[in-house]
Amino acid sequence: MKYAAIVALMLMAPVVLLAAPKNSASVTFTETVSINGASVPPGDYQVVWQGTGPSVEATIVQGKKVVASAPATLVEAKSKYDGAVETSNGNNNSKVLEAIDWSNRSMRFDQGNGSSPSAVGTN
Length: 123
Known about the structure:
Blueprint: H1 2-19, E1 24-29, E2 33-35, E3 38-40, E4 43-50, E5 55-62, E6 65-76, E7 84-89, E8 95-101, E9 105-109, E10 118-121
Antiparallel strand pairs: 1-4, 2-3, 4-5, 5-6, 6-9, 7-8, 7-10, 8-9
């Protein structure tokens, strides 16, 4: 009887893990972008966020290294884009990260520069 209960719990564990909300997504930057004052070079990154939305704290991670973090707004909505990056022009021709659009959500970064966004690259 004990073993049956243990086996049942072991079989349920993957189901519980799959039902847990995913608080991360991948993104590829095709050019250097500025996030909350930090310069992030081109490459593949994970965006990890704390909170369930809409206000979250987003962290840009490459491997185990935190590259940048910033407050953001997470919007759950379907999109035709997956990994699209929106930027605006900052000082000295820099590109300031405004948003990342995935197929099922968008993350908008409030960096207070007031510029209009443009697409930079997709995943």
